[in-house]
Amino acid sequence: MTRRSLLLAAWISIVIADPAEPVAALRRPAATVFTNPTAGDKAERPEINSRRSEPPQDRGILEGTVRYQADPQRPWKLSRYYVQNSKKGWLAEAVVALDCSSRAPSAPPETPKSRTMDQLNFQFVPETMAIHSGDSVRITNSDETLHNMMTSDGGKPFNVNVVKGKDFTHTFDRAGGLTNPIRLGCVFHGGMRAWIYVFDHPWFAVTERDGRFRFENVPPGAYTLGGIHPAGKLRWSRQIQVKPNEKTTVEIQLSPDDLIGSK
Amino acid sequence: MKKHPLTSPSVTREESTVTPRRFSRRDILKVGLSGAAVCAAGWPFPAFAFQPEAPDEELVSFLDMPRTGANRLGWETLDAWLTPQDQVFNVQHYGIPEFDAKDFKLEITGLVAKPMPLTMDALKAMPRKDQLMTLECSGNGNSKGFMNAVYNSRWTGTPLAPLLEKCGLDPKAKEIVFLGMDRKAETLRPGTPRELTVEVPFGRSMSVEDAMNLPLLLAYERNGEPLEKRIGAPLRLIVPGWYGVTNVKWLTRIDVRDRRYMGRYMGRDYVTVRGERRGNEIVFLETSVARMNLKSIVARVTRRPTRNGLIPLKAYGVVWSDGTEVKKVEVNVDGGAWREAVLDAEPRAKFCWILFSIDLGTVKPGKHVIVSRATDANGRVQPAAEDDEIALKKTYWEAYERWPREIQVEA
After folding, report:
1. How many CB atoms lie within 10 A of CB B19?
2. Do A17 and B142 touch (CB under 8 A)?
3. Do the bridges between strand A114-119 and strand A136-141 make them parallel or antiparallel, or are there none, so unpaired?
4. Which of A16, A78, A119, A127 to mutate to test the interface with B (most CBs of B within 10 A)?
5. Are A33 and A238 in contact (CB under 8 A)?
6. CB–CB contact A18 B395 (8 Å)
7. What is the DSSP secondary-structure string of B98-126?
8. How high is the pLDDT of residue A189?
9. Which residue among A59, A102, A208, B57 is buried most deeply as judged by most CB within 10 Å?
10. Is residue B400 pLDDT above 90, yes or no?
11. CB distance B142–A4 less than 8 Å?
12. Cβ contacts (< 8 Å) between A18 and chain B: which residues?
């Protein structure tokens, strides 16, 4: 840690104010409503308790690709970070999840997972993460400078300084779904941000570089498939149907209309 | 009461005006999408900044740089001379204050003949002026994690100097203190028997001479829109040519005094500690951050298709100062010869950044380092990190050293 870093830490406390701005948008309740064409018919209602060791035979697979169609008239400048191939439009680092909010939460994983989020080159890596409630995240610092990691979300706020080579681990128990993520920042470097989405069911994913995601063992039924790109400020939802014992494929095409605040 | 000498008519003030000499109305019309026209029409901001890129030009990302998020200037995609609101940074030390805007007022107190409480309505009824200005946080550039805290604006408000004249500055007045609505308990001499904790407002100050001679503005609009609260609404002090911290947000009191104000952000923080050579001795001096320094940065690099194994490169960048005229910007690749960049002839204004571009010729595939340096009309040259001016500076504020940018290009 350099002398300047210490001075930075000791002499200035930059309040991260701007995370509030996208966060306010994120806090808005999703405009989507779980729909079930056979509401009231328990036989048709999707079974959410998915963490049983042997999934029922009738479950389906849902997979898909999220693409962003650029519009030169309405440039989305952040696309250079998240759309690696502008012709194909694959959108990376978007969170996609089934809306199971009207269902009982699934049992926590029998073996909670542990993920790692690094602070490297003044950036959280990965910037966006999705986990199951009960999972933990180990946050490390690979930069020479002092970093901080703080959040006031999730019911258990923390504010920790971490020097290079050290780490901090936190378990996230409260599921906020797509609407209430854990927003992380570094008080010393206001541009550093990260989002951790916590779910109480297993049908969530962060899209890969090719925009793809895949859910397995999905109870058949009608769902709202929600999506958000917190760093890029995109949000969308689609109504989908998962059929028993089949693979359902969805193609999600986004445009500047899906930028938060564009409408 | 005798008048303060600086309020006499013989004092020449810099023009705090809308239309700088080299950014005339004719230029505005010629460009067709000036800030003024745009604001008036409520259109989105123009893309008339950098010279247009060729159709086959492609952005070359800088290596190992963090992504630019919301409320930060996107250097690589910079395309507007007046910065759009969603790329404007804000830093505050006591948080964004909570208050009822309808109760807001500005008070001018201390060594004045006629102390004044002023409502926003009263301030808006006063003469209205615009001030074009690039505002940079004095910490901007201290690391690659904090290098987007600068933006260019048209601020609108009422000029301060006539208002102070109207209040009648006492001849004993030496210092003008600007206080914000944001407050915090500060502890002096912590851990000692003389420990003292007191709640203080955020404050900055300057001499009466500076306050009367610079085109200070009490601003309530930016780029034709009401100020956002996070950047100081309803009222912000605008100090052209001085670092961001001096531009006090949520300005609620102007206190005129006969001695130096030594609040935390004048006397303890935002203090540059720098060694200066005096003969064989290095003397460390502590000075309050005030005027901006001459600074240039390569904002983005583009390439064109490989020709005969070599890759044509072009660089675009920005240069600014405290209002001192910029003479030239030079750029070099991999430590080679400095080559002079082309400074855009328009748009320009005294306290605003100037955009530049340069054809860098061709390079071999691989890693390269591109850096710019500026020179002003007084012969001052932007220093390198290893020059005394920067190397002997022990605090991170005023980070105006040259910024080498690393790229990697493939055939």
Report:
1. 15
2. no
3. parallel
4. A78
5. no
6. no
7. P--GGG-EEEEEESBSS-EEEEHHHHHTS
8. 87
9. A59
10. yes
11. yes
12. 70-71, 89-90, 230
Quote the radius of gyration of chain A (alpha carbons, Å): 19
Contact in structure between B410 and B365 (CB atoms under 8 Å): yes
Q: What is the mean pLDDT of residues B129-145?
A: 95
For the segment A50-84, what is each residue's pLDDT rounded down to a tens digit?
444 455 668 999 999 999 999 988 888 888 899 98
Q: How distant, in Å, are the alpha carbons of A70, B126, B239, B254, B288 from that of B212?
A: 50, 17, 11, 13, 19
CA distance B223 to B132: 9
Read off the pLDDT of residues B324-338 as tens digits, 9 standing for 90 and up. 999 999 999 999 999
| A10 touches B at CB < 8 Å | no
Q: Are A80 and B66 an interchain contact pair (Cβ–Cβ within 8 Å)?
A: no
Bridge partners of A124, per DSSP, are A119
- Provide the mean pLDDT of chain A: 81
Residues from chain A that touch B65, judged by Cβ atoms under 8 A, are 121
- How far is it, in rounded angstroms, from Cα A104 to Cα A92? 30
Q: Distance (Å, rounded) from C-alpha A27 to C-alpha A18?
A: 14
Cβ(A175)–Cβ(A196) below 8 Å? no
Residue A55's pLDDT is 56
Q: Tell me the CATH number of domain B295-409, given options 2.60.120.10, 2.60.40.10, 1.10.260.30, 2.60.40.650.
A: 2.60.40.650
Cα of B61 vs its chain's centroid, Å: 25
CB atoms A193 and B71 under 8 Å = no
Tokens of B234: 């309803």
**pLDDT tens column, A104-125:** 766 667 789 999 999 999 999 9
Using 50, 70 and 90 to split pLDDT, how confident is the model at B6?
Answer: low
The fourth-level CATH superfamily of domain B13-46+82-261 is Oxidoreductase, molybdopterin-binding domain (3.90.420.10)
Q: In 10 A of CB A244, how many CB atoms?
A: 13
Joined together, the tokens standing for residue B312 give: 């044509």
Between B263 and A10, residue with greater pLDDT? B263
Give residue A168's identity as a one-letter amino acid code.
Answer: F
User: What's the rounded Cα separation, in Å, for the pair A86 and B399?
Assistant: 36
A260 vs B39: CA distance, rounded Å: 23
Measured CA to CA, the distance from residue B63 to residue B331 in angstroms comes to 18
A234-248, B31-45, B53-67: the lowest-pLDDT one:
B31-45
Q: Tell me, yes or no, if A152 comes closer than 8 A to chain B by beta carbon.
A: no
Mean pLDDT of the residues in chain B: 89
User: pLDDT tens across B117-130, in order?
Assistant: 999 999 999 999 99
Q: Both tokens of residue B136?
A: 């940079």
Instruction: Kindly provide the b/e burial profile for residues A12-36, where b requires at least 16 CB atoms within 10 angstroms of the residue's own CB.
Output: bebbbbbbebbbeebeeebebebee
Percent residues over pLDDT 70 in chain A = 76
Domains of chain B: which residue ranges? 13-46+82-261, 295-409
Q: What is the separation of C-alpha B174 from the centre of its chain, rounded to a whole number of angstroms?
A: 25
State which amino acid sits at residue B88.
Answer: V
In terms of Cβ atoms closer than 10 Å to its own Cβ (0-12, 13-18, 19+), residue B148 is: buried
Q: Which of B65, B72, B77 sits opposite A121 (nearest CB)?
A: B65
State residue A72's pLDDT score. 85
Confidence of residue A86 (pLDDT cuts 50, 70, 90): confident
